[in-house]
Amino acid sequence: MGHFKYASDVGAPVEVAFTYTDNHQFVPDWAFGVAAFEPVGDSDHGLGAVFAATLRVGLWHPTIECEITDYRRNAVIEYTLRRRRKGKPASACSNFCVITLRFDPLGYGRAVLTSETEYWAPRGVTGKLLSAALAALVQATVRRTESQLRREIEEFHGTDLVGRIA
């Protein structure tokens, strides 16, 4: 299993950063490689909400299941990504990545965004041969997603969408 963790300062209060990140309609704007992020079922936020995420991987556009497995208002959102298997219940889907976003206050009008990613690497000889390339790919993707999320939160905070004008 691989693990990456990044922390950065965000020029917005925790409440604003969390509100932006919690809105599923904004996920394709900040998540690298995500073309669509649609709710599956009635719930579109909070613990247990399930989404169908369509990824952009070159010409291939797979759809995976993404469930919120930890949710604490203005503190943590954790997404568990699973491969979809047609005709199988969600419990039979295999997890391949857990993304945790933590929000901590840093002072007046600022927050710390901590992004943690755990992923399961392929096993066997092929897995060992590809593990370094996979780690580099995941690390670059997580870093790009984290920096884009930070920029989007700051842009969101600078607009009148949250009742403030920068």
Descriptive terms for the model:
166 residues, 37% strand, 3 helices, alpha+beta, 28% helix, seven-stranded antiparallel β-sheet
What does this structure look like?
It is a single chain. With 166 residues, the protein is an alpha+beta fold. It is 28% helix and 37% strand. The protein is built from 3 helices and 7 strands. It has helices at 14-22, 27-30, 124-157; strands at residues 2-10, 34-40, 50-55, 63-72, 76-82, 95-107, 110-119. The protein has a 7-stranded antiparallel β-sheet with strand order 1-7-6-5-4-3-2. A hairpin with a 3-residue loop joins strand 4 (63-72) and strand 5. It is globular and about 50 Å long. The termini are far apart.
SSE layout:
Layout: E1 2-10, H1 14-22, H2 27-30, E2 34-40, E3 50-55, E4 63-72, E5 76-82, E6 95-107, E7 110-119, H3 124-157
Helix pairs in contact: 1-3
Beta strand %? 35-45%
In angstroms, what separates the terminal alpha carbons?
42 Å
- Uncertain residue segments: 160-166
Largest sheet: 7 strands, antiparallel
Biggest sheet strand line-up = 1-7-6-5-4-3-2
Residue-averaged pLDDT:
84
What is the H/E string?
Answer: EHHEEEEEEH
Helix content, binned percent? 25-40%
Give me the Rg, rounded. Answer: 16 Å
Structural class: alpha+beta
Shape: globular
Number of continuous helical runs: 3
The overall strand count is: 7
State the gist of this model.
The chain has 166 residues and is an alpha+beta fold. The protein has 3 helices and 7 strands.
